[in-house]
Amino acid sequence: MDSSTHSAPIAFKVLTVNVHKGFTTFNRRFILHELREAVRGVGADLVFLQEVLGTHARHASRVANFPQVPHYEFLADALWAQFAYGRNAVYDNGDHGNALLSKFPITHYENHDISVSGPEARGMLHCVLQPPGHQRPVHAICVHLGLRESHRQRQLQCVCELVHGLPADEPVVLAGDFNDWRNRAHGVLLRGAGLQEVFVQATGRPVRTFPAALPLLALDRIYVRNAAVHAPLALPKTPWNKLSDHAPLAAEILL
Question: Could you tell me the pTM of the whole model?
Answer without folding.
Answer: 0.95
